[in-house]
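Batch job 17 of 40 flagged for manual review because the log was empty.
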Amino acid sequence: MKKLFKIKKKISGRSRGEVVVRHQGGEQKRYLRLIDFKRNKLRTLGRVVSIEYDPNRTAGIALIHYADGEKRYIIAPLDLKVNDKVLAGQDSPVSAGNTLPLHSMPVGTVVHNVELTPGRG
């Protein structure tokens, strides 16, 4: 999804435009995938279209198509597969890919991608 990509700016050993470290230029252009860490699309059903490789992180990413037509990338848990349904909100069922607050999860549930500061994603 070209709309979900952003080009990573190269600094190439420069500070204020002047070279301060030699032999740093000429690297390959890198694209950053825009990941939805906040998962603030509450109670909207999404479908996993693909699970992709992201060269900028060790985890895979999943492309989600929501019912209202929006597309977003999320960090893919291990059990998530293509055509799975994902949901975010207080009353979401506990399954791979769903997002809900920690106080709503039963004890012993395996979690991933936990935010360090509440509300910051």
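Reviewer: the log was empty due to a logging misconfiguration, but the result itself is present. Strands lie at 5-7, 14-15, 18-19, 31-33, 46-52, 61-66, 71-75, 85-86. Unflagging and moving on to job 18.
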